[in-house]
């Protein structure tokens, strides 16, 4: 089956978050099942130069204000269609924003991506390749199913994956015509959202199928505390909604073969101790007699970083340490910097992002903390499982679906792979950290849990089979 995957970012070309990892991993995961997936993204600066064997397959002399061309090429093992529209994508800042905030023409920038994707899906590209399925991702891809609906699909079916419903592509109703949507699209049963226009909502209404990135998150989305105002829309499409866990690329995230670390495996954990010692030295920490926890995250309210700041004193007093990598809200960055100032031998913070350093943190930590208030899927806890770095997670979304919490029953059954807590507040997190300290001190139990975590199935085999099933149902 031929599938056109439409997204705003994709590893290894451009990444700001987990969306890029998933979009980049899906084609390779689906290939053994007989699927031919191409990924379509904007040609941000430097993208075209990275594509091998590049050929032009589509063009438009006036795509939302200027000429555009779509180029097909290869990078790593991916077939990529890069939409080159300099007036939309050649910016000096990030892919969504610069120092002044979000680009004001973001609605048009990603509408253009969706328009071109829908045109290729409907009419095919210049090389004769026409997809059976158009698979769109998040609000940036939300208009692609809508364009197929309003302007003709040519028989191509559509699917929309929600990676995080908190981002909904909301813009003013006065943009309806500029986004090439007909008047009837501005309706409470379509794009209208509290007097504005939501590209995500329109995609949810018009896509033939909807997926999200974990079974628990699929259920949560129909509740007001998680649905972010779209819970009614999700509930109305419940029969078309599927929760499919993400996987991780086990070739990239492999403690046995990771070039950034001292290698180790579940059979021999000696290298993990080496990585812990190296990480302590790299972050300038002193003696950490208890568990060394790590955080690799956006520093935001969603990620529960404020809860960690409140729970940290007792954890440090019990012998724990913390090494953190991330950036986000300035107040939370400052709160964590203050913690590092108060406990310089136990807490260290690096503001920013560094992929090799993320690997060293995951390999060197004893535990990875993910205290998110909501988490559609989460990849960090899966990296932790893969590397025997015990996840301490809130019992929500994909965290709940991937980590088996250490309870008397799960420990007795030899099933526990991490520590979970609920409700999601600083009191419950502090309790989870106390359990972490106690488990870490019981070396036989801890070592057994580490080895069990490393054997957890976090790859793409199962998720790819579920996607394949849904594609087949759509085209049956």
From TrEMBL:
Domain annotation Starch synthase catalytic: ranges: 2-235
Pathway, per record: Glycan biosynthesis; glycogen biosynthesis
Keyword field: Glycogen biosynthesis, Glycosyltransferase, Transferase
Catalytic activity, reaction form: [(1->4)-alpha-D-glucosyl](n) + ADP-alpha-D-glucose = [(1->4)-alpha-D-glucosyl](n+1) + ADP + H(+)
Origin superkingdom: Bacteria
Known EC number: 2.4.1.21
GO biological process: glycogen biosynthetic process
Residues the entry annotates as binding ADP-alpha-D-glucose: 15
Presence of the UniProt keyword Transferase in the record: yes
Pfam families: Glyco_trans_1_4, Glyco_transf_5
UniProt cross-references to InterPro entries, sorted A to Z: GS/SS, Starch_synth_cat_dom
Single GO MF descriptor: alpha-1,4-glucan glucosyltransferase (UDP-glucose donor) activity
Primary role: Synthesizes alpha-1,4-glucan chains using ADP-glucose.
PANTHER family the UniProt entry points to: ALPHA AMYLASE DOMAIN-CONTAINING PROTEIN (PTHR45825:SF11), GRANULE-BOUND STARCH SYNTHASE 1, CHLOROPLASTIC/AMYLOPLASTIC (PTHR45825)
Name this polypeptide is given: Glycogen synthase
Organism: Maritimibacter fusiformis
Recorded name of the encoding gene: glgA
